[in-house]
């Protein structure tokens, strides 16, 4: 398997700039594949690349070099695609995605766009159909196409795809969405989440019950802030959507798109509001904005925010209850996968994405103080990970796997400070059950006063790193039966998203004639919103959500 290998042809240190590594990227103007340098300057990580036609592009890559170094220790290659849809001898990333034989991660989460219609028109969204624009198209795969895409996912090897996200547009605009969900379940997928703004569920609780019964496990609920100013799209509707989820036993993940200078001052309050609703909200997954379209450097600097920047703001805005040191990159969980795989002698689901793609931590609520207790405060995570990795190697080298796993289980308690462990949680027992029984039923105990905090920074043309792209495990299913990594599908839409979907679409006018309604008829008119506009100006002054977030600080 040939990976990208770029030789160092420059002086490692140029003034205050210190080279970290070389990779490849693309020109944000013409998509030409370019050699790129990742370097440190003033404690931050940047990328630079030069197109012979359009010149140099320098972009912030990672807001903290210290965190970059810590996270980079978890860099590991995954199993890759053993049954690729695109066979190539030499890596030509990102020219021919789908998955290709050089890709290094199986599908951790597969996305399926079921419609490109949306009932909102958010200014920062990279994808919804806009009537009147040249080339606008209506894309809604048929049920037969949905089934064929699911079969493609389930045929993936060595790990058949088993986790789906229904996305759009707004999936709940699709009239047959319940049938679409049922098809996914019929094809053998265990976990289905719905990426939604929640407006339909706020207006129609029965719709929540229907999709839950059809097979949706949780909502991936857009939630950009606790005030009308930062979250005008569904600020008023969120409490009602949560109540619909609560009544149907549907768990919720808050998904804030984080934009510097717009809502990055409300990351702590978002977590506080999730804390107020932990009976139904089990996670907050922050997404630093991906800057699409043509944008000047000054404008990019105004909006650009990276994972370390968000993590630092969370520490400040939670008054140090969740610190920078509490976070680990996503691939840090690989040692647990490795030891389970060594014990079972079968390939197991893994999260082998690039260390700069995402991060996470678990926090728990202290029953008395109501303050957060991160996992790192009562568990030696690094010690456990090293134990898992060491024992996986021992099993692979021929040591009796049953005795080795018993030794792992016996040692687990030594990494836990039981006096600081939250009531209702037995971490050592939970890991023991996972390791010995390969049962994940006990994972539910994480959600006893527990909240997962995640961070996922999708790339754009200015910071695209092809080494990251080769390790992407968030993929899109397409009607031409390919599986395309997120940061190719959406970063280069003229090659992937738009090119593929236009082939299977119809014009907006043809769709309107076929269904007998106008596209704009599906737009949300804000019928749950109070006031006549002064509330937006008032911001947090009239926000019950902001009040509840503030109360949790007392």
UniProtKB/TrEMBL annotation:
GO molecular-function terms, A-Z: 4 iron, 4 sulfur cluster binding; metal ion binding; methyltransferase activity
Keywords: Iron, Iron-sulfur, Metal-binding, S-adenosyl-L-methionine
InterPro entries: Aldolase_TIM, GDGT/MA_synthase, Methyltransferase_Class_D, rSAM, rSAM_sf, Zn_ribbon_HMPTM
Keyword Protease: no
CDD domains cross-referenced by the UniProt entry: Radical_SAM
Entry annotated with the keyword Lyase: no
Domain Radical SAM core: residue ranges: 104-321
Name listed for the protein in its UniProt record: Radical SAM core domain-containing protein
Species of provenance: Nitrosotalea devaniterrae
């Amino acid at each position: 398997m040939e990976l990208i290998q770029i030789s160092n042809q420059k002086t490692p240190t140029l003034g205050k700039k210190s080279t970290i590594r070389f990779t490849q990227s693309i020109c944000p103007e013409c998509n030409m594949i370019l050699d790129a340098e990742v370097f440190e300057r003033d404690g931050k990580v940047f990328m630079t690349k030069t197109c012979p036609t359009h010149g140099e592009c320098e972009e912030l890559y990672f807001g903290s070099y210290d965190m970059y170094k810590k996270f980079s220790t978890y860099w590991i290659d995954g199993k890759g695609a053993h049954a690729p849809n695109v066979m190539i001898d030499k890596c030509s990333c990102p020219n021919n995605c789908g998955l290709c034989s050089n890709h290094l991660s199986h599908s951790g989460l597969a996305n399926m766009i079921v419609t490109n219609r949306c009932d909102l028109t958010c200014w920062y969204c990279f994808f919804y159909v806009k009537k009147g624009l040249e080339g606008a198209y209506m894309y809604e795969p048929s049920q037969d196409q949905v089934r064929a895409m699911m079969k493609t996912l389930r045929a993936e090897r060595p790990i058949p795809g088993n986790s789906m996200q229904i996305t759009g547009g707004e999936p709940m605009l699709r009239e047959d969405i319940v049938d679409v969900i049922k098809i996914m379940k019929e094809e053998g997928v265990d976990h289905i989440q719905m990426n939604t703004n929640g407006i339909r569920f706020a207006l129609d609780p029965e719709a929540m019950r229907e999709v839950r019964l059809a097979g949706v496990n949780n909502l991936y609920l857009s939630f950009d802030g606790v005030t009308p100013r930062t979250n005008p799209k569904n600020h008023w509707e969120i409490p009602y959507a949560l109540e619909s989820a609560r009544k149907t036993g549907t768990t919720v993940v808050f998904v804030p798109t984080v934009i510097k200078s717009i809502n990055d001052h409300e990351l702590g309050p978002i977590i506080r509001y999730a804390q107020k609703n932990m009976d139904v909200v089990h996670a907050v997954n922050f997404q630093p904005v991906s800057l699409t379209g043509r944008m000047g450097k000054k404008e990019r600097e105004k909006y650009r925010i990276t994972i370390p920047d968000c993590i630092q703001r969370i520490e400040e805005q939670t008054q140090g209850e969740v610190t920078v040191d509490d976070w680990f990159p996503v691939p840090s969980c690989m040692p647990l996968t490795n030891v389970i795989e060594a014990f079972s002698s079968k390939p197991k689901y893994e999260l082998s994405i690039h260390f700069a793609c995402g991060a996470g931590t678990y926090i728990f609520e202290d029953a008395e103080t109501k303050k957060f207790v991160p996992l790192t405060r009562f568990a030696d995570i690094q010690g456990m990970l090293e134990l898992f990795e060491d024992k996986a190697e021992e099993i692979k080298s021929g040591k009796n796997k049953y005795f080795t796993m018993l030794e792992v289980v016996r040692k687990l308690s030594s990494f836990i400070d039981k006096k600081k462990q939250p009531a209702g949680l037995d971490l050592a027992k939970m890991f023991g059950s996972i390791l010995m029984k390969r049962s994940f039923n006990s994972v539910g105990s994480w959600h006893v006063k527990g909240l997962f905090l995640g961070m996922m920074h999708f790339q754009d043309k200015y910071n695209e790193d092809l080494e990251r792209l080769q390790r992407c495990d968030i993929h899109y299913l397409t009607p031409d039966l390919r599986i395309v990594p997120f940061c190719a599908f959406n970063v280069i839409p003229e090659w992937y998203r738009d090119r593929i979907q236009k082939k299977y679409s119809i014009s907006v006018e043809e769709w309107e004639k076929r269904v007998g309604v106008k596209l704009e008829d599906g737009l949300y008119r804000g019928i749950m919103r109070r006031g006549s506009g002064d509330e937006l100006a008032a911001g947090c002054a009239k926000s019950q959500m902001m009040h509840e977030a503030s109360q949790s600080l007392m």
